[in-house]
Amino acid sequence: MIALPEITAAAAAKLTTAEKERRLRSLMRKLQRVLVAYSGGVDSSYLARIATDELGEDAICAIGLSPSVSEFQRDNAIRIAKANGFNLRTLDTFELADADYRANKGDRCYFCKTELYSKLETIAKDTNCAVLDGTNADDIGDHRPGRVAAAEHNVQSPLADLGFTKSDIRELSKAAGLETWDQPASPCLSSRVAVGVPVTLERLSRIERAEIVLRSLGFREFRVRVHDQLARVEISPDELPMALNAATAAQIACKLKEIGFKFVTLDLEGFRSGSLNVVNDTIAK
After folding, report:
1. How many alpha carbons fall within 13 Å on the CB side of residue 258?
2. Does the reported pTM lie above 0.85?
3. pLDDT in single tens digits along all 285 residues of the chain
4. Are 260 and 205 in contact (CB under 8 A)?
């Protein structure tokens, strides 16, 4: 296996985005065959695009599908893959069969990624590929149990190792004509469930239906966070004034209660990524 070259944050800050991309393209050619853990998000789509540019069919882009992946996210990822000629492979994952995953004690992502990466590792051995994920330099240091699973299954993170920030990736994605360049982050549905509240099919279905409601009302960046019977709606600061409209707020509350939530609240701090990453979430107690 070719070890990825890591650079310090200080050294990365001195590199232009063009130089980072040049190094990434060079790395792809050295690796020769890669298996990208693809989700259709900003980071993995950019990585898949560069890998495909350099390696063609020798860049396999694999997406794991399960009830924790919304239909919207799945369809969007497949559409992007087709539009960019990615060599896409779909595979079913069964993280919900794992009691540790369902328990949702703060390390749920470890069990999810273990399920995915173990399958990718098997494919990689059969196809002689290096497994890559889209972790970027900004992700390092955040609460990400999945990084442990990545290390255990020999998953490499070239964007992080080469110093790509989220801003770099958006800039380069825009230059490459990728529609994902300004796409909001879209983690799995289970990420909306508060720590300590078990992940169930019923809860995932409620979350998906609730977010369909918000999307139908014109919101673009949001989360429906679940604290047992309470739905805490986070809306991006730019869109929050629309949610604060009395008629819109009433419509959100009515429709989410129809879905099955007993209480519906609008978070006045607005959307912020990772707001459920705190293990001792007092609302979940």
Report:
1. 9
2. yes
3. 565 666 766 777 788 999 999 999 999 999 999 999 999 999 999 999 999 999 999 999 999 999 999 999 999 999 999 999 999 999 999 999 999 999 999 999 999 999 999 999 999 999 999 999 999 999 987 678 999 999 999 999 999 999 999 999 999 999 999 999 999 988 999 999 999 999 999 999 999 999 999 999 999 999 999 999 999 999 999 999 999 999 999 999 999 999 999 999 999 999 987 656 553 444 333
4. no
When the candidates are 3.90.850.10, 3.40.50.620, 3.40.30.10, 2.30.30.90, the CATH number that belongs to 9-182 is 3.40.50.620
SS3 156: strand
Range(s) within the chain of domains with CATH label 3.30.300: 189-284
Collect all residues with Cβ–Cβ distance below 8 Å to 97 and sequence separation of at least 6. none
State in words which class domain 189-284 has: alpha beta
- Strand, coil or helix: 64: strand
**Lookup result for tokens 């230059």:** 175
Interatomic CA distance for residues 103 and 145, integer angstroms:
15
Q: Return all residues near 144 (Cβ < 8 A) that are at least 6 apart.
A: 109, 135
